[in-house]
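Worked example 3 (structure in, sequence out).
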């Protein structure tokens, strides 16, 4: 178990007594410990998507917000509490990123030549910082609003394909069309959606 050094116990006692400054010093002393855990537990392919330092900073924010919920009294208990917060953040980040990746078109069957659209540039994965994640959320909201402006058959085919994950054969049956007709409808819907997102002057 890592140690907080000679002043760790004093800072912890002061933080429990209500000192935000002591809590800040305590968290700073834990940074290297948490960074090592984040590097170890974050999947290698996600290192570029969400830096370990960003996850540690997110953990610090939660620790400051929820410190009143910490019931321990020792340095070991405090480190264990922080480690659990961090592991939850790593798990949540990985889950959000994996879920977003499932919606990116490059993982889907390509459309006919000339009709495919790079959704990877539209539906973006979570960024490596809170600001990047806010931008990603803003873009996703813009896409949803643009979809809402589409004609009903375009909205239906997009939502069946991306929200339900249905193959074109099933989409065709749902819409009373052939699978080829459903594929072509989807291609027109995506082209129209691009126009809604990036209208020409």
């Amino acid at each position: 178990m890592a140690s907080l050094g000679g002043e760790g116990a004093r800072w912890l006692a002061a933080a429990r007594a209500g000192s935000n400054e002591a809590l800040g010093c305590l968290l700073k002393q834990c940074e290297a410990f948490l960074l090592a855990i984040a590097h170890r537990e974050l999947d290698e392919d996600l290192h570029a998507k969400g830096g370990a330092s960003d996850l540690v900073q997110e953990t610090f924010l939660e620790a400051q917000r929820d410190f009143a919920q910490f019931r321990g009294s020792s340095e070991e208990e405090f480190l264990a509490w922080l480690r659990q917060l961090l592991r939850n953040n790593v798990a949540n980040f990985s889950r959000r990123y994996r879920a977003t990746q499932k919606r990116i078109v490059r993982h889907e069957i390509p459309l006919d030549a000339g009709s495919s659209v790079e959704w990877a540039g539209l539906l973006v994965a979570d960024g490596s910082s809170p600001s990047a994640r806010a931008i990603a959320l803003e873009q996703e909201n813009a896409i949803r609003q643009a979809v809402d402006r589409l004609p009903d058959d375009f909205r239906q085919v997009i939502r069946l394909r991306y929200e339900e994950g249905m193959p074109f054969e099933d989409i065709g049956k749902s819409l009373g069309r052939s699978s080829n007709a459903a594929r072509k409808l989807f291609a027109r819907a995506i082209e129209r959606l691009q126009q809604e997102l990036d209208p020409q002057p």
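Notes: Residues 5 and 29 are 8 Å apart (CA to CA). Residues 75-101 form the longest helix (27 residues).
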